[in-house]
Amino acid sequence: MRKAFVALAAVAALAACASRGEPTPTPTEPTPPTQTAPRGPTPGSVEDFRVSVGDRVFFGYDRFDLTPEARQVLERQAAWLRQYPNVRILVAGNCDERGTREYNLALGERRASAARDYLVSLGVAANRVETVSYGKERPLDARSNEEAWSVNRNAHTQIVSGAVA
Asked: Could you list the residue range(s) of the whole structural domain that residue 114 is in?
């Protein structure tokens, strides 16, 4: 009998809940549309150049000729630089740790010059582009293996002035 009473009480409680009417919505002030902040780097900034365009091209062992991939990156850089004519850049040539200091400084200069010359051929004013060679003095990866060496053989384009802050 007790079970029947508990079951009857549960049914009555559920029935009481079901008999409520739908609540009437209260009118509210319309909310203005929220503006979302732009995603990604600010156009014309150093970060925009690095993320959207790419700031490094890579070279083969003991090479300073531009690969098709390097040319694509430099073409994107040139298009970006034409869009922002006040930006000045420095192209730094880098090498892996193999070879003498003097040899790598000369090779780094040839790499930086190859990148600069291609940018100039694509319409970037030569007076906006400086070059420097760091040889093997500024490795990205300090390990001594082929993977590290391939990363360290590069020309790095960095913005010197004129970018949006």
From this structure: 46-161
Residue 72 lies in a domain: yes
Pairwise CA distance, residues 132 & 34, whole Å: 47
Q: What is the pLDDT of residues 45-92, one digit of tens each?
A: 999 999 999 999 999 999 999 999 999 999 999 999 999 999 999 999
Question: Does 101 fall in a domain?
Answer: yes
Within a domain: 144? yes
Model pTM above 0.85: no
pLDDT mean over 8-26:
54
